[in-house]
């Protein structure tokens, strides 16, 4: 599992399936975007071996070398994505989901039609450049986890009802059903219809907003990979406060110019204080002063039916390990319990569906001690499944026998929030 | 369109460098960096110096790759993107700029809303150009000193984009002026263009702004000094246009414009709203 200071490299290759022409390559090293590129011959061989299998009706999905995991995936017989990762603790599950997110991001920004019916490779390459920023944010160390969990990263605002009312009212005034408030890539509040958006756009849209450079407002064409992959919609974003954006998804109307400062003031000035309280919430996810046991260093709470999650590594921020390390520990633990212990999540067709006999014996909790061996050392991780909720905790000191109690108690306290 | 006012006739040109100007600039800075304002926020001045705000929409137009997004980022004191890629859709940026009027010695807070739209989005989506042009107060036409075609495209741009709105402020800006070694647009062409079109023409450099001591954060004050001539130029044109529109100035006059607020009727277009 990931240690402090690991410098793994991730390479992502995108090729036109029929011609093998590389459309783009993106890399990250040690969690930050890197310029390093694979030699063309390596790209060719990686694509070649996948194509060779395909001609023999063999689906090559993944391979492992001593330090690298490779995953291939074709989309609509038109685009091949290949990812190579030498990050410690990486897994096929993580990489497969990464490729799904990457393809989702490509559809989001250029539309499915352009990707499945490639008429002009050079033009497609140019158009795909718009998606680099979003794709790079999946490859690097992100504060979010929706790319892996396929649930929407959320935060719980202190006065959620007030914001919810203002949002519904504003969305109605703007004649759209789809509205949300996003703080650094996480959803603070959203209208009913916004929550009903399918996967992956529900995860991709806030992520996109969080990855773009700051702008007062945008009128951004998006294709919804699940809901509307060929007809573009308009994503309107309005920066109410620095870091806090109001997002609307709409058709041809209203024009951006109609959402002027006067209209914004009318709806949002009355809730200015609750809005201000949301701005620092991003990495914290929970309202200030929410009682958490002092042993907890990080948590991930998922609601698998609502497809939302809360993820934070802020508690006891002054202690070891670093936030990046905590996130890596929890990500790796999530991958482990999801791939091998807990039942597959609803609505994830790519994973094996177990039969009913196995289902009766699925674990409800598991724990893991990571790091140096010996009594009283290493990081403790515990996962608990209860109904639609799944909680993962990272703790430093708790003795292993107390982990389950800690997790049960924490899940109980968090249940009203998600 | 009203003949553009002579530079420095409406706005006090170097006021932002005076002691008084620097005090006002403090409200758009924070710890020597440019402050970013949300749409619900405005710069706050201490109550005795509360001033009026005049808001304007400005559409930035120009051939793909001339540096529209980079120019707007520079005006807003934001990081200029390193690698070029086409802007997706429309993006708007708000820049506050306090300036002093020549005629009345009053300070006005200008609020510029820059509308920037990628060239291919304009072609691909029909609604974008009308939205950008709707109720715009000014057009900023950009060309690049390193791209001759972008300069030659200007008359076409002027006709296509601003053709139906002849009465509206139009300004031309040449970007990447610092790369004069590779300039594709010689001075004589600029002179000819100026004579033919009688439009204000400014130049901006594209070198990255000065950094603070930490070597990373952009120096807000130094950045403002680099772009003050553009913001003052815009403020001048727009303020002048408002007064002509309000009938406070004869359309062809070259006299020093009067301050509309010295009139009891105030500004009939109701641009200015009292601050907080």
UniProtKB/TrEMBL annotation, chain A:
- Write the record's keywords in alphabetical order, separated by commas: Cytoplasm, Cytoskeleton
Q: Which GO terms describe its cellular component?
A: cytoskeleton
Residues in the signal sequence: none
Output the CDD domains linked to this UniProt entry: Fuzzy (cd21091)
An example GO BP is: vesicle-mediated transport
Cellular location(s)? Cytoplasm, Cytoskeleton
The residue ranges of the FUZ/MON1/HPS1 first Longin domain are 11-137
Question: Which parts of the chain span the membrane according to its record?
Answer: none
Q: Where is the FUZ/MON1/HPS1 third Longin domain?
A: 296-415
Q: Which domain of life is it from?
A: Eukaryota
Keyword Cytoplasm applies = yes
Q: Which InterPro entries match?
A: FUZ/MON1/HPS1_longin_1, FUZ/MON1/HPS1_longin_2, FUZ/MON1/HPS1_longin_3, Fuzzy
FUZ/MON1/HPS1 second Longin domain: which residues? 176-269
Return the similarity comment. Answer: Belongs to the fuzzy family.
**What is the protein name stated in its UniProt record?**
Protein fuzzy homolog isoform X1
Q: Name the source organism.
A: Zalophus californianus (California sealion)
The gene is FUZ
Automatic annotation (TrEMBL), chain B:
The record's family statement is: Belongs to the small GTPase superfamily. Rab family.
Q: Name one GO cellular component term.
A: microtubule organizing center
One GO term under biological process is: exocytosis
GO terms assigned for molecular function: GTP binding; GTPase activity
Q: What is its main location?
A: cytoplasm
Q: Where is this region: Disordered?
A: 250-276
Q: Function of this protein?
A: Required for efficient primary cilia initiation, regulating a late step in cilia initiation. Plays a role in the final maturation of the mother centriole and ciliary vesicle that allows extension of the ciliary axoneme.
Protein keywords:
Cell projection, Cilium, Cilium biogenesis/degradation, Cytoplasm, Cytoskeleton, Exocytosis, GTP-binding, Nucleotide-binding, Protein transport, Transport
Q: What is this protein called?
A: Ciliogenesis and planar polarity effector 2
Read off the SUPFAM superfamilies from this record. Answer: P-loop containing nucleoside triphosphate hydrolases
Which InterPro entries does the record associate with it? P-loop_NTPase, RSG1, Small_GTPase
Tell me how this protein assembles.
Interacts with FUZ. Associates with the CPLANE (ciliogenesis and planar polarity effectors) complex via its interaction with FUZ.
This chain's source organism reads Zalophus californianus
List where in the cell it is found. Cytoplasm, Cytoskeleton, Cilium basal body
Identify the Gene3D superfamilies for this entry. Answer: P-loop containing nucleotide triphosphate hydrolases (3.40.50.300)
